[in-house]
């Protein structure tokens, strides 16, 4: 898909989500967890933007801040010419149908005391869609769309396998015909063979509904399969964003290079620790300057005190937040 001329359906600008140490969104002056710390990007209509990074780098927090499930500490989320960041639940209601999320564990996110019919009818009821008959017809349609038989309607979530439950989660997320879907580790809990079925279902549904998707996963092979563009996140910030092909064929940020080198090849795992030294620093006290400098084998004095911003090279919209990526790339090309 060509994206350079595409229209942004969502613009994120300087988004921050800070938590207080004991949980809950940070509001005061005590120590804070900078889970999301100045994130800006655009999501184009119809694209899938992959979001990758180590566990704890802030991917889920970013998703929740975008959807206002945790009210952001600062920044803007522009959808349909409106800044929806920080809207009250009531004001947010009119946007909820357009922006939906699929979670990792559909068992936890589906009410176990309700039948599938009740679960799928609920969003339609909340948004006052149609009468009882048309809602039940819509439930039947949704089940067919996600490849479940009509008999699924009268069953409870525990009667289904993990993959089937994720199909129910997807049916619920698309019930109101959203424009934007955020999938947070949507297949991570599933067996590999089932993962492929759910990923293909998502691709089918994306095409039918013309969805724009933010696809979060720690599995870089899965992200590559799904994404048009990829954003790489480190300690609450985006360090590189480009089309998927460029990210995988010529990663520029040393962190992205380490992440990609940790993809298992021919069954041999190469954990992230083997590629990037040291642990992820605490988001309560992120390093000064470039946040990655404490783990970067290419660091120079400037990296310790000057934070790099996301900058394009001469070759189009491949953005990298590293002072020295051209020098690093040149060195790598000559080695
Ligand atoms: N409700 C909360 N209260 C306090 N800190 C939180 C809260 N939610 C997340 N955090 C912290 O924010 C940071 C980012 O967490 P987040 O879950 O967003 O990362 P992630 O990249 O999605 O990781 P994972 O892949 O493990 O889910 C972590 O340090 C985490 O401990």
UniProtKB/TrEMBL annotation:
Keyword check for Transport: yes
Keywords, in A-Z order: ATP-binding, Nucleotide-binding, Transport
Residue stretches making up the ABC transporter domain: 12-260
Presence of keyword Transport: yes
GO molecular function annotations of the record: ATP binding
Pfam families: ABC_tran (PF00005), oligo_HPY (PF08352)
SMART domains: AAA
PANTHER family noted in UniProt: D,D-DIPEPTIDE TRANSPORT ATP-BINDING PROTEIN DDPF-RELATED (PTHR43776:SF7), TRANSPORT ATP-BINDING PROTEIN (PTHR43776)
Recorded family membership: Belongs to the ABC transporter superfamily.
Protein name, UniProt field: Dipeptide ABC transporter ATP-binding protein
Species: Zhongshania borealis
